[in-house]
UniProtKB/TrEMBL annotation:
Pfam families: Rhodanese (PF00581). PROSITE patterns: RHODANESE_3. SUPFAM superfamilies: Rhodanese/Cell cycle control phosphatase (SSF52821). Residues 17-105 form the Rhodanese domain. This is Sulfurtransferase. It comes from the Bacteria.
Amino acid sequence: MQQMTAPDLAAWLADPARARPLLLDVRENWEFETCKIEGSTQIAMNTIPARIEELDEEAEIVCICHHGARSMQVAAFLERNGFARVTNLTGGIHAWALQVDSSMPRY
């Protein structure tokens, strides 16, 4: 699995020449409602195994959580299940709020 920093993800999302990845936010509903990266898809970590068929194995997927630990577990799970283009957002949404979008609520 690859790792990506928040500024690197922001640059990717801002680059019109690059296809937008699936931003897979694996936090709980209340966390997602508190703050999120625009355009993210939320599937809580504990529901990923039951909902894996909703994900495209060929898609570029960036996994996101609060600090990067849960998303790393989900990214590893996806790789074990045939997903080859998976990246973990290092530091999670917290790093995004600190390094990219200072107006984002933190918790």
